[in-house]
From TrEMBL, chains A, B:
The lineage of its organism: Bacteria, Pseudomonadati, Pseudomonadota, Gammaproteobacteria, Oceanospirillales. Pfam families: ADH_N_2, ADH_zinc_N. This is NADP-dependent oxidoreductase. One of its GO terms (molecular function) is oxidoreductase activity, acting on the CH-CH group of donors, NAD or NADP as acceptor. The keyword Oxidoreductase applies. Residues 14-330 form the Enoyl reductase (ER) domain. It comes from Vreelandella sulfidaeris.
Length: 334, 334
């Protein structure tokens, strides 16, 4: 059986060039003992993957040049050489960026029996949702009544953060760019703030208007002027969960940090980076809390979908152009 | 009785001009019920006072223009209208920047009965020592064996941090400028690193050489390239206690922050600002632990002393020129 997959031909500087992604094909070997073969139906592309596109080991190993790229994916078992999985099982795994995945069964997780579309396990009930929940609750220690600010608030992670914070009874301000994203935030009873055509002072003023009682929790996905503006509005004892700094991921030159970090002292504030993988033991707790809300339609989640394996690089690159609302996905022919 | 005292005539921009400090004199009123009169012997000048020299309320109220300035001081009670204090008692209080202080007795603390020079209560056993202990233990959660980096390591706070960390069994690297400061650090078995004539990359390299196993705890007093270099060397789970950013206090333009704050994510690190006043309930614990070490001569502390009330502004301004080793003090005639 043929597997089609993407490889990276070189490590990019700055925004990756489309030509660095190469679609290849190979004949899969016979299934070994303990392995399963999966036909992927949905692939995930995520900002963190940019970090794997360099020769430097950060918190995940880099993609190996010329080898199949990896990422979260959903699919159906089409052949099994392991007692734990049967043909027809719907599963999630990390063998993305390809149409057929052949993996050891222990690296494959059956989808829970919850009435949600399967691709939800790449978004609201997957890594992005879990990232939102972890940062908000375990890192920023968000409490009911907090004033919460979220950057990239209409993204896969950000849109979950704002809704989880609203459900907790917080006053929530979301930063985004495009008008339809701001409108979506407003429809979620989130105070929308645009960063477009604003410097950090103007953004600070807009945040102050949207959250006159200051900011207790800042969920950081962006960096840059968003961080500087957020720091200027912190309340005493504020907590900043640093999930991402997408603003900097493709920077070719070092981009200066905020000029007002001393606000951490003035406001006795905490700023903490985290990687969701370290908190995965809490996934059942997350699922128990959030899955019923998703299943009952109480969480409004958007998806931006590209069709076909050959559009996976475009889907990935769209993430850095503000081109997605909610979770960016690739849908494969089944 | 006459009191001589300093007032601030205007709020400075950048490094305060000497002419903004005005020595004035007034006749003190009769002692009211519950008040004491104190002849000051030692005055403290501290970097945090720069924060009070602006019209903006930060974590302490600004100095009021034309009113006596304030700061920590040690003196002897010369007249008492309160049963709690007697003439001859040695006390600490906040009526500094003046020769005679007249205060409500409840704002005055008798010195503990420990065999140390009285000015130690402005330094190693006072606010700077308590700041060092709090940041290291309560904020950075320093553990034996940690690799600890300290900026402004020969200052009043920094020099206590390095010694407390050494006493805990840590590997300690101290950043300073002048050769005699680096030599002093070396005499304390601290790895000295100079920031002079180095950019942040060069400083990073020097820190890596001095601490090949990375940095678990960074005690931040400076900001600027020290912070950028420190961020580049963090170990996973590192903790940064942000005590001060003296680099920025006199900046007239916003100074850009570190370009590598995303290291907080990569290293899953925490960065937390604090104000020692919030932790003052731990002062007895600090005193119990540290006072015997000071009394037994196990803590090496240096003082830089200016003589005479009229040199208080110079003593203060010296703090921003790297002119002090250890605690900066003003000694008054007794």
């Amino acid at each position: 059986m043929q597997m089609r997959f993407y490889t990276l031909t070189d490590y990019p500087t700055g925004l990756p060039d489309r030509a660095l992604f190469k679609l290849e094909s190979q004949t899969l070997p016979e299934l070994a003992e303990g392995e399963v073969r999966i036909r992927n139906s949905w692939l995930s592309v995520d900002p963190y993957m940019r970090g794997r596109m360099s020769g430097i080991h950060t918190y995940v190993a880099p993609f190996e040049l010329g080898k199949p790229m990896e990422g979260a994916a959903i699919g159906e078992v089409i052949e099994s050489n392991d007692a734990r999985l049967n043909v027809g099982d719907k599963v999630s795994h990390m063998g993305g960026w390809r149409d057929i995945a052949q993996l050891p069964a222990q690296e494959v997780t059956p989808l829970p029996d919850i009435d949600v579309p399967e691709q939800a396990y790449l978004g609201v009930l997957g890594m992005p949702g879990m990232t939102a929940w972890t940062g908000l609750n375990l890192i920023a220690e968000c409490r009911p009544g907090d004033n919460v600010l979220v950057s990239a608030a209409s993204g896969a992670v950000g849109s979950m953060v704002v809704q989880l914070a609203k459900a907790k009874g917080c006053h929530v301000v979301g930063i985004a760019g495009a008008a339809h994203k701001l409108a979506w935030l407003e429809s979620l009873s989130v105070e929308p703030v645009s960063y477009r055509d604003r410097n950090s002072h103007e953004l600070s003023d807009a945040i102050r208007l949207a959250s006159p009682n200051g900011i207790d929790v800042y969920y950081e996905n962006v960096g840059g002027i968003c961080l500087e503006a957020a720091l200027s509005q912190l309340n005493e004892g504020a907590r900043i969960a640093v999930c991402g700094m997408i603003n900097d991921y493709n920077a070719e030159e070092p981009t200066p940090g905020p000029s007002n970090l001393a606000q951490l002292i003035m406001r006795k504030a905490k700023m903490q980076g985290f990687i969701v993988a370290d908190y995965w033991e809490h996934y059942p707790e997350f699922l128990k809390e959030v899955a019923p809300q998703v299943s009952a339609g109480k969480i409004d989640y958007k998806e931006t979908v590209k069709e076909g394996l050959e559009n996976t690089p475009e889907a990935f690159l769209t993430l850095f152009e503000g081109g997605n609302t909610g979770k960016m996905l690739v849908k494969l022919d089944s």
